[in-house]
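Follow-up to my post from last week.
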Amino acid sequence: MTELPFVDVVGFWVATFLTFCCLSFLYKDNPFYKLAEHLFIGVSVGYLIILQWGDNLQPKLVDALFVRGYRALAEGGSLDRWWVMRGIALVLVVMLFVNALSRRYKWVGRYPVAFVVAFYAGLQINAVAQSELGEQIKFSASTIDAPKVDLNSAPLDQLTSLPGGSPSIAEKLIVERARAPFTSVDDAVTRPSLTAPERADLAETRGHLVGLDARAAVGPGEHDRFGIVSNLLLLLGLLSSLVYFYFSVAHQGVIGKVSRFGVWTLMIGFGASFGLTVQGRISLAIGRAYDVSGRTVGPTDAARIHSLPVAVVCLLLVVGGIVVWELRNRRRSGKDSA
Amino acid sequence: MKEHWSDRLQRFDRRWIFLVMGLAVVVPLFFPLGLPAKPDRMTKAAFNAVDALPEGARVFVSIDLDPASTPEIEPFFRAVILQLKRKNAKLVFATTWYQAPPLVDRYMRETIEVAIAPAGTAGYSGLNDRPYRKNVDYVNLGFRDGKGAIIQAFGSSLRLAFDNHADDGTALERIPMMRGLEKLADFDLIVLVSAGSPGAKEYVQFVGTRERLPMIAACTAVSTTDLAPYFQTGQLIGLVGGMAGSAGYETLVGKPGAGTAGADVLNIGNIVVILAIVFGNVVYFAGRYHRRQRGAS
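User reply:
Got it. Predicted complex:
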């Protein structure tokens, strides 16, 4: 791997300093945090402007519309349909700016907005209807029965989806059952063609409630009882949540109780979301800690960055700066009160 | 009257919790516990989907992330790229996030153009991978703006969406591995490294469901509950959620990395959060009980 350029080393130092600047907000709002905040906004806007110019405006507007259009006309050719479409897009953009420039012709700016809203509404309605309503309703409306997977006849994908399953295990099970049908789940998971790690994987997932034994059988007609309860719970949760959002009847009596169950279901969902959000935030902190301690680069680059001494210096700079700032504030407020 | 302990703790300075959380994150970095990272069912399904690919399969990888989401998703990306390279998969990269191009360039340098697990890699016993050559083994199509609309365009014509050029300016018809790859439906698998919107949700909505595309996704922990229903219905055939999911994926691939080490820290962070919630509730209910008792007397 090539050595980290010196500019990237300096980048790491700046990132470490700015990390401590941002974290200083946990104490309270202060000039170091403000510096990082303003720098972030400035850099983001600058980056976005350059990117939009290079990726959209220059190739799709200036080059395509003016440079190539002029060339086509100069060579005696004609303008193609893409040129016309880009021309329409440019007119819509200009109309959008009229909105900001003239009070009298402000109405002109409504047309490009209407175009964008209609375009995305058209795209979104179709997409959401198919992927959210269609597929999700189809899944929710399926049978609550949960038949076990028959190890002696199930296809490859069903064997793969079993707890502890994998494509390679599934293929081996198909070969083994052709040699001699399985007499029990124990028989299936101890066949000689399975490797020791594969057997260990399968052994780890054994269990009659939610494990392999609950989901697999060696004959047809067996049912996963916990799976049925789970499907029933899903159905009840779905219906009661919908009842909670049905406002045409008063939520009293039976409807009130069903709606209450719907609220619990929603709360469990929100709780799961909250827990995962907390995990995400801790992951952010872990990521910064990794970067500051130089663990996201190779050992050679880490040696060049001197991450720990740099982190200590940055921390001292920020803490020292905040102490000086606080002392100055106190002195100033003392003078004011005097 | 003497102040009750719960009243004193109600004024507890929250900055102590920040400090404890900071220590919970930093200390395990230097003294790792080495807790196991077990993959969940969705992560395992994602691994199985890649594992079932034939040798030399053609895979589209959409890298839709920003620097803030890298701790959660980057470990998955590195692990899945190793798994794909072990299968000699032909890789096509694209991104719909404007923050992603600098990261994508770095990933190309660090994971694609060099071997992630060359022979002699310490602590790794799986198959070795090899450096990939640009426009031979992989193509980086680059960034395209347009959110859902551009994802829909990927579904109908990659050449139109990318003006018939790869990110380095090479015309797509001059790249042999792009022959027959006109749209997303031409790929054997679509891997979505997705930190938010536009990302996995839009791929499912705008192309995945309509074209019945085989798609796996890695997302931030926050998005897991949004995307999990797509896994249940089969619209996503695998889902790797957050840092814990990435750690599980690393375990399956057999090369523990930043995800596994991070999950160790994450476990301790979670314990701190649970203790803080319990502490807050104990203080609140004790205070309420005390106030009621005082009111009664």
